[in-house]
Amino acid sequence: MKPRLLISYAHPDDESFGLGAAIAKLVDEGVDVYLICATNGERGTVSPEMLEGYNSIAELRLAELACAAEKLRLKQVFLLGYKDSGMMGTPTCEDSECLWQAPVADVTRRVTDILREVQPQVVVTFNKYGGYGHPDHIAIQRATTRAFELASDPTYITEHAPYRPQKLYYSSIPKRQLQLGIAMLRLRGLDPRALGKNRDIDLVKIVDNVEPTHTVLNVSNYFEAWDEANQCHKSQLGGGPTWRMPLALRRWFAPHQGFTRVYPAPASNRIDERDLFMGVKLDDMTITTPAQQTLAPAAD
Ligand SMILES: [Zn+2]
């Protein structure tokens, strides 16, 4: 049986900007990578010329995602089709069709069913702060974490049969790497509290909310593949400095993609893995009772 990974994220571009290098590495190593993209990304800032040939921002951003999926050789993309909620505290967050307003139970049910259909041994989502506090990231994190528990519960009925995934991770960036990033941005006269095309990424808050890293993947050989996937999301480029940094400097500065291991809970908060599939049994199809698979929160 092949190793399978399911990434459960919120927007068309999260997969590339966040995990592009790690996905390229894992696919190269023979892992089938599946993606849930919960929203259509219609609240992203898009310059008018980018919209030429498209009927809407959603259509453009989903086309960009299709491009990235091909570059990254994703096995399959599942679109949940919720509306992008935009930034926390803005009126778009009140839209009844946005992910932030969707009942958690409904989102959880859909994620659980995809989890049962794909049968990944390993699942990755955002951390509790949603990486940088975006409401859609927080919503999909909550639904995915609950879905990870419910997938193996035979009393929780969805279209597909119960299945027990083995490991759950939050994507993470080692704290020291982030702190170095803040220092470098300040040196270059950039504001680490207002990054990205939408100026909604506050690196200082990200550091405050970062969770311990237990697993690191060395992705330094996959920066070109990462850039290629990022280039697909042209409408969202231009705000952040990461992709403008020379390649050699990036390799030195940030060679690792980090992950917080949520399940099975780590014994201590230190880096003890360099492979997401460490200890995974590829032929294990056992179904457990809910009591056997209650998530222990990762210690701070
Ligand atoms: Zn996002």
Describe the structure.
- There is one protein chain.
- The protein has helices spanning 14-28, 57-71, 104-118, 130-133, 135-150, 175-187, 203-209, 223-232, 247-253, and strands at 4-9, 32-39, 76-82, 122-125, 167-172, 215-218, 256-263.
- It has a single domain (4-293), classed as LmbE-like (Rossmann fold), CATH 3.40.50.
- The chain contains 9 helices and 7 strands; from the N terminus they run E-H-E-H-E-H-E-H-H-E-H-H-E-H-H-E.
- By secondary structure, the chain is of the alpha/beta class.
- Strand 1 (4-9), helix 1 and strand 2 (32-39) form a beta-alpha-beta unit.
- Helices cover 34% and strands 14% of the residues.
- A 7-stranded mixed sheet has the order 3-2-1-4-5-7-6, sandwiched between helices.
- Helix 1 packs across helix 8 (223-232), helix 3 packs across helix 5 and helix 6 (175-187) packs antiparallel against helix 7 (203-209).
- The protein binds zinc ion.
- Zinc ion is lined by residues 10-11, 14, 134, 137.
